[in-house]
Amino acid sequence: MIIINFNTMKKYFIITLFFITTIYFMSCSDSSNSVGESQIDTTPPMQNDLDVWLRNSFVSPYNIEILYKWDINDTDIDRFIHPPFESSVKPMAEALQKAWIEPYSAVGGEDFIKKIAPRQFTFAGGFNFDPDTPTRILGIAEAGSKITLFDLDFLDFTDINSIKQPLKTVQHEYAHILNQNIPFDIIYGQINPEDYNANWFNRSDAQARELGYITAYASSQSGEDFVEMVSEMLTNSKVDFDAIVDGIANPEARAIIRQKEAIVVGYYQTNFGIDIYELQALTDAATQELVN
User: Is residue 40 situated within a structural domain?
Assistant: First the structure.
């Protein structure tokens, strides 16, 4: 027979409860005093002269970051590409500054690039070959916020055509960003849709022009058609662009490209108050000045 003394149990319960409470408060006190150093490295990164120049020229005035020191997670891991030589970075950054930012700021207002721009550029030194097509990718844009430029270690700043290569990519991708803000008129893609082809890389630029597309890539789809018109206009002088169009043998194709040109002109003027021919003249003059 078991006899339970409830008074004794009450005493033990009170003692036990007091003991547990004491341990709890001691544990809380100990844990608050045992917090170690953060596992996150909060040490400011070392900045060399180039980093300071990039910060003062792009980050501070335009909120645009230029990455040239990066790891594999910043690019497509299926591509054999690498960061550029440090000596390749400033010439390309200056080209962006002089032939893209400054002309747009001059005709669109000093806040134009501040309001609408990719917020990050990644510079890559090597070539980027597309494994699915016999083409070399010069640049890619991601969600209108990041542009990656390739081949920078192979640019020749004594050759204007070499300089135009990455600038054309930037003008192309930036036109996409503008279209994401304000779409172009769908009538553009209805002018000659019958010859759009996913296998555009089987055509030369000359063949595409005889079909009414300014480049072979423009013949892939209407969105690329529009931005290729923009990029060709903004990486050629008006004289040179007119020479390209006037050199097309098919008069119908010439008329189609002029019709597309007129839509591009109207798009810039109506939506952004920009005379694209003035912008064209400024970008051409700036590009000429980059040749050394």
Answer: no
**101 in Cβ contact with 114 (< 8 Å):** no
Give how many domains the chain has, as a whole number: 2
Q: Are residues 286 and 162 in the same domain?
A: no
Cα separation values, 79 from 131, 227, 270, Å: 9, 25, 40
pTM: 0.81
Q: Which domain holds residue 55?
A: 45-178
Please provide the size of the chain in residues: 292
**Where a domain ends, among 178, 196, 231?**
178
Q: How far apart are CA 27 and CA 224, in angstroms?
A: 64
Domain at 200, CATH number: 3.40.390.70
- 242 & 268 share domain: yes
Backbone angles phi and psi of 97, in degrees to 5: -65, -45
Residue 64 shares a structural domain with residue 170:
yes
Q: Which residue has the higher pLDDT, 20 or 247?
A: 247
* Domain annotation covers residue 11: no
Among left, alpha and beta (phi > 0; psi -120 to 50; other), residue 117 is beta
Instruction: Classify strands 65-67 and 120-123 as parallel, antiparallel or unpaired.
Output: parallel
Report pLDDT digits (tens) over 2-25: 444 545 544 444 444 444 444 444
128 Cβ contact list (under 8 Å, min separation 6): 79, 81, 136, 137, 138, 150, 151
Tokens (6 digits) for 42: 């909060």
Question: Using CA atoms, how far apart are residues 161 and 109, in angstroms rounded to an integer?
Answer: 28
Q: 127 in helix, strand or coil?
A: coil
